[in-house]
Amino acid sequence: MNILDLKTEKRTTKGSKGVKKLRMVGKIPAVLYGHKQDNVMLSLKEDEFIRILHTGTRMIRLTFDNNKKESALIKEVQYDNLADRVLHVDFSRIDLDERVKLRVPVELIGESIGVKEGGVLTHVMKDVEIECLPTTIPEKIKVNISELGVGTSFHVKELPVLEGIQYTSDAEAVVASVHQIVEKKAVPEEELLAEPEVIAKKPKEGEEAESEKKS
Q: Measured between alpha carbons, how far apart are the two ends of the chain, in Å?
C-alpha cells in the first residue's frame, strides 16, 4: 500500500463553535493518538484529505510542527450524512515494523450461479477485520462468488489467503449468501369474501337456567 503525505496544522480550537469555524474555511478537525504518546489535535484541508481518501489508502505520513512527520493509519472518519461531508478524522500512530488490526472493505466479484438461477444475493459483511504489517495493508479483499449457489453462503474462513494477512473476524461469520425468493401463497377470492363464523358466547351460570324458564 502506498504511503501518502498529508500536511496538517496543530489546532487549539475545541467545542462545536471552534470546529464549526474550521469547517467554514474548508478545514477538518482531526486527532492523532496512540503509542502511549500525547494526543495531538490537528486540522487539515478538506479537499486534500478527500483526494487521499479516494485513493483507497489507509496509511499516511502526517506533517506538522515545522515538517515533523509521523506515520499513521486513518482509523475513523466521521461523516455528516445529510451534507455528505467529513466531520472529523481519527489518526492512529503506527510503527512500520509493528502489526496492526483494522477493517478493510470486502468486494464481491463475478456473478453467482445462484443469482443466474433466480436467487437473491445478500452481501452480509461489507468489511472484515485483519491483522498485518502497515506496509502490507490491502485496499480491499476481493471475493469471487461465481460458484455460490442458491441456499449456500460464503464465510470468513473461505476468504482468499493473502501473504502476511491474518483474518481476525469470526471465521464462521457469513460474508455473502444466496437465497431463493419465497413467494406468498395467494388466498382464493372466495375465502377473502366469505363471512367469518360467529361463535356464540357461552352463557354464565344462572343465565342458562333463566333462558330455560323463558322458553
A: 95
As given in the structure block, the three cell numbers for residue 128 are 472484515
Residues 67 and 40 in one domain: yes
- pLDDT tens digits, the chain, 215 residues: what are they? 668 899 999 988 777 888 888 888 999 999 999 988 999 999 999 999 999 998 888 889 999 887 788 999 999 999 987 767 899 999 999 998 999 999 999 999 999 999 999 999 999 999 999 999 998 999 899 999 999 999 999 999 999 999 999 999 999 999 999 998 776 666 666 665 666 555 555 555 555 555 554 44
- Closest alpha carbon to 146 in 187, 108, 101: 108
* Within a domain: 188: no
Asked whether residue 45 falls in the same domain as residue 113, the answer is no
Would you say 58 and 137 are in contact if contact means Cβ atoms under 8 Å apart?
yes
Same domain, 128 and 72: no
Q: In what order do the strands lie in the sheet with 174-179?
A: 120-123, 174-179, 152-155
Domain containing 153: what range?
101-179
- Residue 5 cell numbers, joined: 503525505
Same domain, residue pair 154 and 113? yes
Same domain, 85 and 131: no
Specify the CATH number for the domain of residue 32.
2.40.240.10
Q: Which residues contact 165 (CB under 8 A, 6 or more apart)?
A: 130, 131, 132, 136, 138
